[in-house]
Amino acid sequence: MTYPIDRLVFRPDDVDLARSPLAGHIGEDTYVLGAFNPGLTRLANGNLLMMVRVAEALRQPVRDGHVRSIRWDGGRYVLDPWPLAQVDTSDPRKFMVHGSGWRVMALTSLSWLLPVELSPDGLDRVAIHYDKAVAPSASFQCYGIEDARISKVGDRYLMTTCSVSPERHSTTLYSSANGLDWTFEDIVLDHQNKDMLIFEGLIGDRYWAQTRPLGDLYFAYPPGSEWRAGPAINLATSPDGHHWKPYREPGIRPHSATVATARMGGGTPPILTDDGWLSLWHGVEPKEIVGIYRTYWSILDRDDPSKVVRTHHAPVLEASPTLTAPIEHQMYLHDVVFTTGIADGGDHYVVASGEADLACRITHVPKAVFGL
Question: Phi first, then psi: what are they for 139, rounded to 5°?
């Protein structure tokens, strides 16, 4: 599906690395591997705010028979060398470390979050707030902070992020009174969960969230089931936004009728419509190493989000080679769109996505697409 307003609004070359949190620490040339997967919210002045994930990588990661990773260490950034004979570097985003008896991974970049203020329609850049960047500040974030999702609940902005370290692969929570100045709250999920999305509003007196726990083992559905075993979108509730309990009923699950969503996870924080909670989520079709990422949608019951009111197997967004053609020389992935933010634009939604793990994409999606 194509839309009249659909463009890249922020690219790697738009980042000034002289103002990066890493500047002056490691003494080597770095570059922006990607500026992508932006959380999105509307500020009090009407402008939109993207929290852009900036993945900063070494220009020359391999030296003297070693591949090096960047790590935060007590307020500074250091380089860790890994012998090439001990790793698999076939995925440009990471390398696998051999010899542990289980999967061990390190990253080729370190991510931090950059606030980028946009015009109300999301199409023009107003300001880049380097002074308000969110960077690692604890050992459980030593390999970076990734993939912000922003929800406004009442007068409070809540931002979930994925904090990466050898200690844990956790979900961390930040809060803000204005959407620009963020305060670290706490670790709120302690297992591998890349996609925690807090609903934009309470149900009854409780916070709700979509989660996506990961693992290497999934139990099979019985033969003939309409569901496919694998990563799925679960639900959790909380009295305060800090302490979360898994919901008993399942959320959105992969459907056996299509391989395009064989793996799935959350995209945008669910927002309330007249018909229920609108949730945009990603489905991944297996292909080569990374797969094909597309964006899909479901509307969930306003009182019990485990019930799907309606959905569709056709994607809302797919990767766009036309949009990325001007930056093709910087691309290292294809077939990937990863939607991470949504805001009401009147007769349409302003949808923010990461395109090819490289740039930020803004699309105006008519509400009629969702039957609204």
Answer: -65, -25
Enumerate domains of the chain plus CATH numbers: 6-370 (2.115.10.20)
Phi, psi of 77 (to 5 degrees): -115, 135
What was the pLDDT predicted at 69? 94
The Cα 10–Cα 36 span in angstroms is: 8
Strand order in the sheet with 94-97: 87-88, 94-97, 104-107
Which is nearest to 158 in space by CA: 251, 238, 252?
Answer: 238
pLDDT of residue 191: 78
Residues of the chain with pLDDT under 50: none
Sort strands 197-198 and 207-211 into parallel, antiparallel or unpaired. Answer: antiparallel
Neighbouring CB atoms inside 10 A of 324's CB total 20
* DSSP-based three-state secondary structure for 371: coil
Q: Is 222 helix (H, G, I), strand (E, B) or coil?
A: coil
Which distant-in-sequence residues (6+ apart) come within 8 Å of 355 by Cβ? 8, 36, 319, 320, 323, 324, 336, 337, 361
52, 38 contact by CB (below 8 A):
yes
Structure token digits, residue 167: 């200690």
